[in-house]
Amino acid sequence: MAKFAPQGASAAWMRVFAFAFLASACTPAQHTHQTSDQPTIVSLNPCSDAILAEVADPAQILAISHYSHDPRATSMDLATARRFAVTGGTVEEVLALRPDVVVASAFIDPAARLGFERLGLKVETLGMVGTVEESEAQIRQLAALAGHPERGEALIARIEAALSANRGEGETIPAVLWQPGGIVPGEGQLVDGLMRNAGFASHSAARGMAQAEYLSLESLLAAPPEVLLVAGQERMQTHPALDAVPQMQRADYAPSLLYCGGPTIIRAAERLGEVRRRLQ
């Protein structure tokens, strides 16, 4: 059976190369839509969408990922996101836009990446970030790519100001961030660092729970934290039993604040600071 496994992958490669061959045969060597020294960009990553909207000229952004038009998946303001065209991320869609650069996740399909590169498109990839410093490095990377490094520094200054203004003082408060699916963040995750900045200690990490580990309602009620940050509306996250824990305070935390760095850090820091001040 193993000899049949590569068949789908081979078909994908042939499709990419066939399209790349036809496009290269019909496309002039120069990107005729480009009117300045700044590159035109297609973003396939919702996290890079939000950063590019801050550091690039709108005319440079030919399309962003379709996730940023979805209220359930976007990490940026919907009104801002809807000013830009979107792409589903297929090779055909991207090549039809003829960008200079494609910004994608580090997990981009190798066949798609090779197809882009064979047509002379630069591919810039972004990995997951675990710290504010790593996110700021990505901001500088994309701002330099867009030709506006000063805008990257301005965004970083806003992030640092938000972190400073929402830094928790005094003793840390044990808190659980209950994410969609009932999972909790582990140590070394970006949101964990933001919680510590606001003066919260990870109650789940103190119990030995790791990244994306499931926290059941029963376990939560057996050892409740002082603060429960609820990022979701699943049945157990709205269960009436939570109201019977008077020593535990609850606060909503938007799921859109969970997955990206960049300008999302500002909103996340402000929300965590708001919750902390309410407790004080």
Description of the structure:
With 280 residues, the chain is of the alpha/beta class. It has two domains: 38-161, 3-Layer(aba) Sandwich (Rossmann fold), CATH 3.40.50.1980; 170-279, Nitrogenase molybdenum iron protein domain (Rossmann fold, 3-Layer(aba) Sandwich). The protein is 41% helix and 15% strand. It is built from eleven helices and eleven strands. It has helices spanning 7-26, 46-55, 78-81, 91-97, 110-118, 132-146, 149-165, 190-197, 203-206, 217-222, 264-279, and strands spanning 41-43, 61-65, 86-87, 101-105, 122-126, 173-178, 183-184, 200-202, 213-214, 227-230, 249-252. The strands form three sheets. Strands 3-2-1-4-5 form a five-stranded parallel β-sheet, sandwiched between helices. The chain has a four-stranded parallel β-sheet with strand order 8-6-10-11. The longest helix is centred in the N-terminal third of the chain and has 20 residues, at 7-26. It is elongated, with a radius of gyration of 22 Å. Residues 1-14 and 16-35 have low confidence and may be disordered.
Query: According to CATH, what is the class of the largest domain?
Result: Alpha Beta
- Counting copies of identical and different chains, the oligomeric state is single chain
Q: Strand pairing plus helix content: what structural class?
A: alpha/beta
**Beta strand count:** 11
- Major sheet attributes: 5 strands, parallel
Large-scale geometry: elongated
For the biggest β-sheet, the strand order reads: 3-2-1-4-5
The N- and C-terminal alpha carbons lie at a distance of 63 Å
Number of helices: 11
Task: Return the string of H and E elements.
Answer: HEHEHEHEHEHHEEHEHEHEEH
Which segments are poorly predicted (pLDDT under 50) over 5 or more consecutive residues? 1-14, 16-35
Percent helix among the residues?
40-55%
Measured by DSSP, the beta-strand proportion falls in 5-15%
Under CATH, the topology of the largest domain can be stated as: Rossmann fold
Please state the CA-atom Rg, rounded to the nearest Å: 22 Å
The number of distinct structural domains comes to: 2
Q: Give the averaged pLDDT, no decimals.
A: 89
CATH architecture of the largest domain: 3-Layer(aba) Sandwich
Tell me the CATH superfamily of the largest domain: Nitrogenase molybdenum iron protein domain
